[in-house]
C-alpha cells in the first residue's frame, strides 16, 4: 500500500473515462434527456471538467450536510463556473456574461476569489447553448473545476500598472492556448492552481505554482518560482525553489511542474493528493532537481527573492496607469453581483470611454483606461449601482465563499451573512481606519481562504444560547497573506473554543475591532 495504489473512487472514475469526454455526452444526450438522463459518474464527477457542479437543494440545513447521501443534496440545477484567466475581460465579453446570467441563470453571478464568474440555476438543457455563446467571445468553462489546471490567476493591472516591469499576460495566454483542454494534463491527482503576476497582487502563496516578478542582478526582470501552496485542510504556503525564470520560459516551466504533479502526485487518498503533500515529502531542493533533470533537461538559473507587499493589494480606488489614464476599482459586497449589475458595469465603462474590465482575486473589479476628466463621474455612476470606489474598510476587506445557498458541502450561510456583517459594521464603526480582512467560509474547505485573513471564519455548527446546535463560525485570528520581504506569511491562530453563533457574528467582530482600536500601538 503506497501513495499511489489502490486508487480512490474518484481516481477510478477518471481512469474509466477522461473528464473532458463528458462534453460530447452533454451535447448529444444530457441536453436532450434532461437531468434524469445523466450518468451518476458524470453528474458528480466528470461534469466538473466543464465547470459544472450540481447545486444544493434549497432548504436543507447545514446539520444535514454530512448525513445525507449526495443524491439527496443535489438539486436539478447546476453551478457553472466560467474561467477568466488573468481576470481580463473586454466589454463584449462582459456583456455576454451578463446576458447569459439573465437568460439562463436567474440573474445570478458571483465574482469568485479566483477571478472567475460563477452562475447558479443552470439547466443542463441550456449548457450547449451557453458554451457556444461564451466561446463566440473567447470565453470558456473548460477545466474550470475538476482535477485539472484551473484558471490562471494574473495581476488585475497587468499591462497597465505604473510599477509593473513585465506584463506576463502572454505567458498566461500561451498556457491557456496550449494546455487547457489537453487530455494529457486533464487527469491530475487533484486541482492545480496557478498564479502569474509581476506585482504579487494575487494570493501567490496559496497556489500550486506561482510566478512572482523579480529582477535578477545579472539577467534582469523575470519571475521567481514558488510551488506547493494550498489552504483547505492542512494549509501550507508555497515554497520558493530559488529559481529565476524569464518570461518566455514560464510556460515550459509551468508544464514541467504540472507534469511532476501528474506523474508523481499522490492518488491513494484524496485528502492528501494536492501538490503540497508531495512537496512536503520531497522538499524544495529535490523538487527542483526532478524538475530540472527529468522534465526540463537543463538547470534553472538561481535567483533572488522578490520584494513582497506588506498587505494584499486589491486595487480598489482610483489609480493612475503608466499611460496617464486611470483605472477605477470598485467593491461589491463579497463578490455578489448579478447579470443586471454586470450590464450596469459595462454601460458605465462604455459611457466613460473604457473597453476593458478586470476581475480581482479579492472579489472586486476594475474599469481600465479612464481619462482623468471621466473618473469622478464614473465613480458616481458605480456608486449609484451600489458599487463603492471608496468603500469602508469593512466592505473592502470582506470576502465570502458560496456557502449554504448553493454549495453542497456547506454548513452555514455566507454571502448574506457577509452583507449583514458589513452593514452592521458600517453603521457601528463607520470611521474604522485600518485595513482589515474578514473571510467567511461555509465549511472547513476554506475556499475563501479562512487561514490567511485577519479574522478568518470557518463555518460549523455551534451550541446556541438555548443549547441547540445552530449555524456559527470557528474563528482564526491574525492570519494575512503578503508580508514584507524576508518574512513568511502566517496563518491565523485557531484559538480553541473561539467560536460565535452566526447570529452574534456582527457583535463579535465589532468587539474584536473595538478591542483592537483600544489596544493598538502607535502606527499599528
Ligand atoms: Fe462550499 Fe465549503 Fe468551499 Fe464554502 S468553503 S464554497 S461551503 S466547499
Got a strand count?
21
Which ligands, by name, code or SMILES, are bound? Answer: iron/sulfur cluster
Give the helix tally: 15
Radius of gyration: 22 Å
By secondary-structure content and strand pairing, the structural class works out as alpha+beta
Side-by-side strand order of the widest sheet: 6-7-8-9-10-11
Morphology: globular
Low-pLDDT residue spans: 481-488
Query: Sheet bearing the most strands, described?
Result: 6 strands, mixed
Oligomer description:
single chain
The N- to C-terminal Cα distance equals 52 Å
Query: Strand share of the residues?
Result: 15-25%
Helix content: 25-40%
Mean pLDDT: 93
Structure summarized in a few sentences:
This protein is an alpha+beta fold and 524 residues long. The protein has helices spanning 9-16, 22-33, 40-43, 70-73, 91-104, 127-135, 169-179, 250-264, 275-282, 284-296, 339-351, 372-384, 393-397, 415-428, 505-519, and strands spanning 52-56, 74-82, 88-90, 108-111, 117-122, 149-154, 192-197, 209-216, 220-227, 239-245, 301-302, 317-320, 326-330, 336-338, 356-359, 365-370, 398-400, 438-441, 455-463, 469-477, 493-501. The strands form four sheets. The protein has a six-stranded mixed beta sheet with strand order 6-7-8-9-10-11. A five-stranded antiparallel beta sheet has the order 1-2-5-4-14. A five-stranded antiparallel beta sheet has the order 3-15-16-13-12.
